[in-house]
Task: structure prediction
Amino acid sequence: MDSKVVKFLTSKKFFEIAFIVVIFVSFAFWLKHIIIYGSPSFQWRVFLLDLDDFEGDFTNVIGYSGLRDPYNCLYYTDLQEKAYPPLIYVFMYFISRIIDLTDYYEADCFMDMYKEPKLLIAMMLIITAMIITFFETVRHNKNGSYGIKLLVAIASLLTAPFLFSVERGNSIILVIALMMAFFFGYDSENKVVKELSLIALAVAAALKISPALLGILLIYKKDWKAAVRTIIYGIIMFFGPFLLLKGGFANIPLMIRNIRLNNEYYMSKWGLTLYYTLTNYGAPESVALFNITGIISKVLCAIMLIAAFKFERKSDVAMVLGLSLVIFPDHSGYYNLLYLFPPLIVLINEEKKYLYDLIGFFAIVSFCHLYRFEALYKSWLDCRTSIVVLIIYCLIITGVNLKHFRKPKESEN
Result:
């Protein structure tokens, strides 16, 4: 391939332009389709249940938290849905004080809770704050001119996983912002910025558990003091809120029980892990396949994360970490795709790119674009296929890095 073409395709400018253009064009087509076809438009399927459970991740958790006994709550859904760490339940308990939940408990349903004017205003303010935080974190950590930073941040708000998370009212929007703050601040020379980034990771882990994996970056750097401080912050943020719930620390085994029930309940065809991808391709559903693919995923993640100790580029480390956050859990929902946003920004920022980086870049962009082709509905060309491509990309960068690592030793011999 012509060197000029290769140079352009691996340039930061190409990655920036490609991301901005694809996302804005897909948004324009998405909006056009909805305007033309109205309510029946296929494009509304970017949202869960066609908006029948609007802001469900927000209102449902309010209902679970209202009695300060979420891990024993049997209202509306069974125990498998009450598997979050305590911090989010404590926060939602205070929000639940805004309205009287008596009627909702009697009806055993929280779906219409968002229609309460006071609660709706509170939700709008909180979700808007999360959106602004996400936007500003992307804009601040994207390098380049102000215009490019602004366009990339706006484009990030117009992606399918982000809008899906907004419609659900899911706290992952804030979690991603906290993760990005850590990723771009844990090695800062500014002591205040660094300490705030460690606290940000602790809060993110206390909300979703999975982000705790990013703490491995401190081990890569051999920054043991920062690692210890992060663990201390994490213990406080994770276990402290139990004291504000009925039963205190007795809720810990209940949370673990609910997490196990959650994994068992969601062993179905939908998800972003290898199991769900294979069943989407036609493989028969079975507990054996679920367990085998789970083991394979965890082994792959372990190999790549261990190899990442010797990775040269920050973007390679970010990609492996982001992928692990998606495929390591036994169940990974659609909003978990947002875990790949920090790696995406790091990759776009990367000055030194190779042709194979296009594989990872377009794998992420392929599920970020908002417009959905109706003819491809339920086909193989969906976000699960994109995850398989991303796994291949991460295996490539792992192999390339290990090859580079061996070169000096070979030359010495």
User: Anything to note?
Assistant: Residues 409-413 have pLDDT under 50 and may be disordered. The two ends are 34 Å apart (CA to CA).
